[in-house]
Amino acid sequence: MRSEPVVQVQALVKRYGTKTAVNGLDLVAQAGVTAVLGPNGAGKTSTIETCEGYRKPDGGTVRVLGLDPIREAAALRPRIGVMLQSGGVYSGARADEMLRHVAKLHAHPLDVDALIERLGLGSCGRTAYRRLSGGQQQRLALAMAVVGRPELVFLDEPTAGLDPQARRATWDLVRDLRTDGVSVILTTHYMDEAEQLADDVAIIDTGRVIAQGSPEELCRGGAENTLRFTGRPGLDVASLLKALPEDCTAAELTPGSYRVVGKVDPQLLATVTSWCAQHGVMPDRISVERHTLEDVFLELTGKELRS
Amino acid sequence: MTAISTYAPKPGAAPLFRMIGAQAALETKMLLRNGEQLLLTVVIPTLLLVLFSSVDVVDTGSGKSVDFLAPGILALAVMSTAFTGQAIATGFERRYGVLKRLAASPLPRWGLMAAKTVSVLVTEVLQVVLLTVIAFALGWSPQGNPLAVLLLLILGTAAFSGLGLLMAGTLKAEATLAAANLVFLLLLVGGGVVVPLDKFPSGAEDVLGLLPISALSEGLRDVLQHGAGMPWGNLGILAVWAVLGLAAAGKFFRWE
Predict the structure, then answer these.
(1) Do B106 and A106 count as a contact with CB atoms less than 8 A apart?
(2) Pairing of strands A152-156, A80-83
(3) For residues A252 and A258, what is the distance between their CA atoms, to the nearest angstrom?
């Protein structure tokens, strides 16, 4: 599958007025599923929308399937599928009506009835788009992105606000697309979604890619592991640190929830439990785990809330 | 029902005429399904035609009042569809991301605009047929050259479409909704639709005569009521509005 990259972004700059949303971003996405992660305002949507031909770069170059998304839009558009973050449908149109319409704009569309069935949109009946539930609207937008049998699909937060069943249905569809050779670029806030679906993850912050690799590569990031436990809030972390080997760190992440990061071995576990015994702490839910993508993400992008 | 056997890529745009046809059909369906739009494009013109023809509310000069009113109501029908209806619908399509989503489809932007024009023309044909039948039932006896009427209707549509799209593509959807309805009302009163322009003071009459609605209603009246030849003056006014409106819409229209 490693042939020509499906998306090549080089030194992309995108400004809105005085605000720089994308600041010299480089991103290469190969065939397969690429997840783009980042805090709100990191530049995910700006980057995706530049790839889709909606925004003109203020600097750098963008190639999608080898084409310039603006100058070669006419050649590119039939080959890509787009799911916007929201909207995109006539408020008075029915789900099947809109999907049939998008199918008609393509030469070899999927079977609309089968796709409706697949995504559980059959129950929408004669309901107008504006009266569909948020989940139904999302699934319709997803169906519209794939109905034209594109080579590459852009999904901007495809499962935001979906219930667990609808989320699984979306994941299953993305997996089927991948199996059948359709490439997918998706943005998401859900780390498990990226871990489950993506061959490749790019983490974006303040308009640049700050890490990229397979979920495994990103999680391996260093040989360090994590030990977590819960106890009563406000334990003396400094005293715990003193008991630990020098290269370890310890922190109270949220009140009562502690994390020790370092080379986790039986000796370390014993050190932590004996420190707890000395301090009269029952280390509830003590666990040893590899890094999750969420840890990597929070480490790279910080924990403060973004506006 | 058969399940989907493969999602394997097989991309391609449908033939252009089929895309534009499908788009025009959908746009027309959306318009005919929308109650507010039908009120504007069908109910109001029909009511005004029937009411003012049968009840002597305004002094429409000598002759049958339907002969004065029918051309004005036809002009109003064109304005309601090409300007008010199109502005409001397009404004909300822009607001709800419909235009944005379609811009990523194989349908080119000019194709979308062509489809909108076809949809407007189809609606106008339906309006003209309906209003003509009603006018005949009310005793209308039209004169003049059908070609001149057709030319007026087409230039009027172009002028109002340009202005409607300019509004839809630059203002917020709610502002477009309010402004388009207000303009509709003002031009209904001051554009020679049901109130003869010579009821206004002469200075005002001269200015009002330059409005696209006045050019259209007076032009249609010259031909259909008075049997005039080509109403070049009014056609010229409409052509200027069409060029200015469409050029400004082309320059300032924002798709999101």
Answers:
(1) yes
(2) parallel
(3) 4
Structure tokens that stand for B9 in this block? 């890529």
pLDDT of residue A1: 46
Residues of A in contact with B33 (CB under 8 A): 92
The CATH-assigned architecture of domain A222-290 is: 2-Layer Sandwich (3.30)
* Claim: this prediction has a pTM higher than 0.80: yes
Confidence of residue B157 (pLDDT cuts 50, 70, 90): very high
Does the domain spanning A7-219 belong to CATH 3.10.50.30? no
- Whether ipTM > 0.85 holds is yes
| B12 contact residues in A (CB cutoff 8 A) | 78, 106-108
Put simply, the answer to whether B96 touches A91 (Cβ < 8 Å) is yes
Q: Contact A153/A185 with Cβ under 8 angstroms?
A: yes
pLDDT digits (tens, 9 = 90+) for A181-195: 999 999 998 888 998
Mean pLDDT score, B167-181: 96
Band of pLDDT at residue A290, cut at 50, 70 and 90: low
Query: In terms of DSSP bridges, do strands A183-188 and A33-37 run parallel, antiparallel, or are they unpaired?
Result: parallel
pLDDT digits (tens, 9 = 90+) for B38-90: 999 999 999 999 999 888 777 777 778 899 999 999 999 999 999 999 999 99
Residues 6+ apart with CB under 8 A from A93: A101, A128, A129, B26, B30
| CB of A185 closer than 8 Å to CB of A80 | no
Of B159, B164, B161, whose CA–CA distance to B238 is shortest?
B159
Domain boundaries, chain A: 7-219, 222-290
- In the numeric block, which tokens belong to residue A274? 């004996």
Helix (H) or strand (E) holding A200: strand A200-205
B35 touches chain A (CB under 8 A): no
Q: Say whether residue B12 is in contact with chain A using an 8 A CB cutoff.
A: yes
Q: HSE of B38 in the Cβ direction (CA atoms, 13 Å)?
A: 8
CB-closest option in B8, B13, B29 to A106: B13
Query: Taking residues B83-110, what's their average pLDDT?
Result: 96
Question: Does residue A149 belong to the interface with chain B, where contact is any CB pair within 8 Å?
Answer: yes
Element containing residue A155 per DSSP (H, E): strand A152-156
Average pLDDT of the residues of chain B? 94
The confidence score (pLDDT) of residue A51 equals 97
Residues of A in contact with B1 (CB under 8 A): 113-114, 117
At residue A215, the pLDDT reads: 86
Chain B's closest residue to A112, CA to CA, is: B4
A111 contacts chain B (CB < 8 A): yes
